[in-house]
Amino acid sequence: MLKGKTALVTGSTSGIGLGIAKALARQGANIVLNGFGDVDGPRAEVLAAGEAAGAQVAYHGADMSRVPHRDMMKYSASQFGRVDILVNNAGIQHVANVENFPVERWDSIIAINLTSALHTSRLALPAMKSANWGRIINVASVHGLVGSAQKSAYVAAKHGIVGLTKVTALENATTGVTCNAICPGWGLTPLVQKQVDAKAAEHGISNEEAKKLLLGEKEPSMQFTTPEELGELAVFFCSPAANNVRGVAWNMDGGWAQ
User: Active-site residue 154, yes or no?
Assistant: First the structure.
């Protein structure tokens, strides 16, 4: 379905971003990965996922907190042509009460989780509009719809992502460019696993018990949303069936945000 298209997925060397990159590759899209840590492993996974569809994979190591976005966009275009599908997924987390929240951590979270999506979007939109086809998918969170204690910066950033999604969709409503947000609940990503580990240590319980405790606090389905499920939702947003899906904040959260 996406043969000949190029997808740039930020924060895609693990977790949700990697799941989305693999799902798009399976549909034939060429993928530009971005993120920290191991690159060879994720690249091999995406290549394997897209092998039957002929997808190719490149990587750019832009630090999403430092506004190197123009270089990353130029690199993506030089590898495969314009960016047809932009997935803004990069994100970090820090937990503390508002009065104790470290200012530098607030600034980093807003820069990576929110501001980077503005920069990549503004750079991708001209070519998308010229081609009259494009998909911007912002990975928000259920925390773009509801709040949780001790997550002020994350919740603020994710609410901002939902707002940015709506405005981007409205500004391009008469074009072939759409913008939508995905709002996952708990997914067992490296970010969430740290919270599971902390809960297990705090209560002196096993990791499996800590997972159940975490899910029981918020997610009625008592199951984690998987990167594979989120990847398939991203594929839907890129399909002809979603041509008129514009500006939605689609929660996949097991009933959390009711």
Answer: yes
